[in-house]
Structure formats: C-alpha cells, structure tokens
Specification:
Blueprint lengths: L2 E3 L13 E3 L3 E4 L6 E4 L2 H8 L3 H12 L3 E4 L4 E5 L4 H15 L10 E5 L5 E5 L5 E3 L5 H8 L11 H28 L7 H27 L17 H11 L2 H19 L1 H24 L7 H6 L5 H13 L6 H7 L1 H7 L5 H14 L4 H5 L1 H10 L5 H13 L6 H25 L1
Helix pairs in contact: 1-2, 2-3, 2-4, 9-11, 11-14, 12-16, 16-18, 17-18
Length: about 425
Amino acid sequence: MALQNIGASNRNDAFYRYKMPKMVTKTEGKGNGIKTNIVNNVEIAKALARPASYTTKYFGCELGAQSKFDEKTGTSLVNGAHSTSKLASLLEAFIKRYVQCYGCGNPETEIVITKSQCVNLKCAACGFISECDMRDKLTTFILKNPPEAKKGGKDKKAMRRAEKERLKEGEAADEAAKKIKKKAPIGKEGPSSKASKNHSSDEEISPKHDEVGNDDDGEDDDEDDGIQWQTDTSREAAEKRMKEQLSAATAEMVMISLQEEEKKKKSPKSKENGDSDLKKSLVQEMKEYLKKGLPISQLKAFVSSRSEPPQEVMDALVDALFDGAAKEFLKEAAKKKKYLVAATQEEGSQMRLLNSIGSFCGKDGNGEAVKEVAQVLKVLYDEDILEEEFVLEWYQKGLAGEDKSSPVWKNVKPFVEWLQSAESESEGEEEA
C-alpha cells in the first residue's frame, strides 16, 4: 500500500516519520443512489489516531451530503459521486483542524473534551493545547461520540491517588528499616567490620612497599614523612602576610576597603535592593520575550533554559503576563491561559504557578485581583492546567504558613470547598 506524509506542509520531506496510506475511493451505484466508498478509510483513520467515523462525518458535513460509517464492516460511504482528489483535499483540511498541533504542527495529538464541553487537541510533543472551532459541525458530533478512552481503564485522578498511597507506604517502610538499623547491636560483625578489617590489612601491607622504595631513593624522603602542608586562611594570617608584602600604609588602605565591602555584603538593605533589582530585570526580560510574538510552544524551552530558581522564573512570568491587569484578572487569565499551559509541563510547575498567583494577588495595588482569584483557579482547573490535589495542598500550606491572614486564602476557600465536595462524591461513586 502506497504511503504519504501526514499533512500537506510535510509532503516533500523525505525523512518525515508520520505517514498514512494514500486514499483509495470507489464509486458505487447509479442515478440517485450513487455513492462514493472510501475503501481504505479505516487504515487512514488508524494512522491519524482518530475514529473512522470522524473522517466520514467530516466529508459529509463539508460536501453537504449524507454520510455513513458501518462499524461492523468498516465501510465509509458518502452520497454522491466525488473524485479522489476532492476527498483527499478535504482530508488534508481535517488533519489541519483535528489532528495537527496548532503550536508545532506535530500530528501526535490526543482529543480532549474539557469539563466546559470544549474540544481540544493535546500535543504529546510540545504539550500545547489547541482549541478546536466549536462552530464546526464535526465538534458537535465529537461531543456526542467522544473517542474511546485508552486501555488501562482507571481514571487519571484515581491513578494519581493510588500512586501517592504507594509512595507513602514506601516511605513508611524506609522509616521502619531505619529504626531496625538503629536498634541493631554494635558488637556483632557485619559487612562494615569486614570492610574495616580489609582496610587495616591494606594499611599493614602498604608500609612494606614504602620501605622498599625508601631504600632505593635515599634518606631525604624520610625527612618529609609526617609533615602536613597547609595555608592559614584566617583573617589575622592574611593581614600578617599582607603587611609583610606591602608597606604599612598600603596594607591599611587595602584592609579598610575589604572591611567596607564585607559590611555592604552583610547589610540587609543592600541584599534586599539587589534581590529586587534582579527580580525587576527578570520581569522585564519576560515582557520583552512576550512582545516578540514567538510561538507559544517555544515558551517552555525559554523558561526551562533560565539559570534563576524555577519559582522566581514563574513569578516573573505571571507578573509579566498580568502586569496592570489586576482589575481584569479573570478576563486576562482566560485570554492568556495558553502561556500558562506551556509553562506547566514540568514536575512541580503547577505548585509554582499557584505560589506565583498567590504572591501576585497579595501585592499592594492588586486588591481587585484577590476578589477574582477563585474564579481564575476554576478556569485553570477546567482547562486541566491545575489539578485538584495541588490546589488543596497549596491551600493547606497557606493556612499553616506565616501569612495565613492573607485575603487570598479567604477568597480561595469557596473554590477549595467545592473541590473537596466533588472529590468526596467521586470517591463515594467509586465505592458504590
């Protein structure tokens, strides 16, 4: 069977690894009952990782004709006589809309239906989430006929809970092993005692070799035995050496300048000013990067390439995205959620994002943003950017921390209570 590259933009790339069969069609019937059969539609759909019913339905919607896919026989029929080239061009449009990532163009995507009943494409290559046009007729069909869940059966959230329980059991086992080691008697011989014996025997052997060497080299080497060479690095020793090498006046001037530099380093104000200047410059760099209008898929690489601590980088990104938008925090968060998706692909990034949102809302002048923080978290939760376990952990840490009187926790509380009630309901359903 002849193969071709997936996506019209990759047609001439000889090394492109994503391929699909070339379309084969057959006209059946006569008169008003004439139909076009896409003979290898099932093979094409498998290559695209999409149900064959989706491509069949798409052809019917775009051609304004009735279409039908038979699950038992795998037959795809579209009413009317349609050329192979016409159907192939429609297939390319389907790939561009419902297969290829809108960020990087990779066809290795998965259809995700969000809690708000939107059809998205999640890219396995860059992590970008593409939003399909909900005005398209096929999106309504996809909502009514969602793709089958991958084999494995369990819900992602249930699997995460089970993984956390396994980790806790492992930690408990480690603690028990440590206690047993502490209680073990010291007198008994073990591997360590054997090792020490071996070590001592090696030490007994080595001097014999040294004695042989000393006989050959002479008596001069024996004079250096037992001498430890080291430099006294204390302040008094440094002053003494400096005074010996420099004149008294020069040495005193150098020492005064060193003392002033040490005082500046130890000064808390200078340290705070230095930290704030670094943070401001990092925020400014983030703003300049966002102004360039580069593809959002490249943001992940830019963020991970920074040498600053990951939390500071996330703080700077949130400040750059929402600077001056405290009064329209919810609106801006919904508009710029794609940037947050790209920045939360690594482990621990969701917790860092929550910390950054909390610190942004807690800043002076952002009092309006605090009022909308629960709604913002709800939007990010619905879009699968934030998971409930991280939100709950972040909230509990905030209440137990030093800044527990912050208005952030008061405004987040209703959303947290809603999450807890939804989680308890899902657990009750699983037990039933």
